[in-house]
Specification:
- The chain is an alpha/beta fold.
- It has one domain: TIM Barrel, CATH 3.20.20.
- The chain contains 9 helices and 10 strands.
- It has an 8-stranded parallel β-barrel with strand order 1-2-3-4-7-8-9-10, surrounded by 4 helices. The protein has a two-stranded antiparallel sheet with strand order 5-6.
- β7, α6 and β8 form a beta-alpha-beta unit.
- α2 packs parallel to α3, α3 crosses α5 and α6 packs across α7.
- It is globular.
- The mean pLDDT is 95.
Length: 316
């Protein structure tokens, strides 16, 4: 099992000094990857339903460091951590510029970029950015992913699609990773699974979504469906990376307030290791934990608390 952690993009720990401390401490402890979220602007009035709370209300205040700029900063502060967009809202940015930025970061980080992708949920943000029509964001995302792959693997590159086209351009230097940085698809709807099967190198679902939790039993069903869809595309499902985003790591909070059941990854070290083993048996190769807090010392303490489990269970 490999382990990743979320990086704060807003709040009191989203400062140069705190971010550097978090990623360098995580790297020293043996974490494999760091996750960076994506928002550009937050409209004052939000009517869109936030998919990661039961109420649908968005809990943030509207501040967020830009994802790719932050990724470049972190690349310069680390040596081994993989840098993961978790996830990048694909239609937010021009696909050619995005391909260039990601390739540049891959070169500067010596091949450590992973591109987690999603289609987005905040209609008002799409409108503010002048992004393509929100209701076509799935089709746009699929096309933009293909554009990025084309620019990364062909020179000169040409593309003619429904939403974008260009003819005979060079986008150099290419990424260090061949054929290109891995593409991990977020979400666990049927549409998302089909996107993984067609275009993804990995699946990157949110398992800790209280609105739609993805427990081992549900995950097993989704993985079986993903295997079927991937084989139908003529691809080998065993080559997909499964990266599972877990809850806030706090083993002392053992009971789920809604169900009264033990929270996954809580309790004793043995309990946590047992949960990890159950996910590994299903085919999960990476688990991402959330150690974020408004206090740097508390975030670092949470990482340290997990370190004994990491040392006994981490595998490449």
């Amino acid at each position: 099992m490999r382990y990743g952690f979320y990086l704060p993009t807003r709040g009191q720990t989203a400062t140069p000094e705190a971010l550097e401390s978090l990623v360098q401490h995580g790297e020293a402890l043996g974490f494999s990857s760091v996750m960076i979220a994506d928002h550009i602007v937050f409209p004052v009035a939000i009517n869109s339903k936030y998919p990661y709370t039961v109420s649908g209300a968005f809990p943030g205040q509207g501040d967020a460091l830009e994802q790719l700029a932050l990724m470049a900063f972190i690349a310069g502060k680390t040596r081994t951590l993989r840098l993961v967009t978790s996830v990048m809202i694909v239609p937010h940015r021009n696909p050619v510029v995005t391909a260039k930025m990601l390739a540049t970061i891959d070169v500067l980080s010596k091949g450590r970029v992973t591109v987690g992708v999603g289609v987005g949920w905040l209609r008002e943000e799409f409108q503010a950015l002048g992004a393509p029509d929100f209701d076509r964001r799935g089709s746009v995302s699929d096309e933009y992913i293909r554009i990025m792959k084309t620019l990364w693997t062909e020179c000169p590159a040409s593309f003619a699609g429904r939403f974008y086209h260009f003819d005979a351009v060079r986008c150099l230097p290419p990424p260090v990773q061949k054929p290109h940085p891995p593409i991990w698809v977020g979400g666990h709807s049927q549409v998302a699974l089909r996107r993984v099967a067609r275009l993804g190198d990995g699946w990157h679902p949110v398992g800790a979504n209280p609105a739609v939790p993805l427990r081992p039993s549900e995950l097993a069903v989704s993985l079986e469906e993903l295997r079927r869809l991937t084989e139908a595309e003529g691809r080998d499902p065993s080559r997909l990376t499964i990266s599972y985003k877990a809850p806030v790591y706090d083993p002392t909070q053992t009971l789920d307030a809604r169900t009264g059941e033990r929270r996954p990854f809580s309790g004793s070290t043995g309990d946590v290791e047992g949960d990890i083993a159950a996910f590994a048996k299903l085919g999960v190769s990476e688990i991402v934990f959330d150690f974020r807090s408004e206090r740097l010392d508390e975030s670092l303490e949470r990482m340290e608390r997990f370190a004994p489990v990491l040392r006994t269970t981490a595998r490449d």
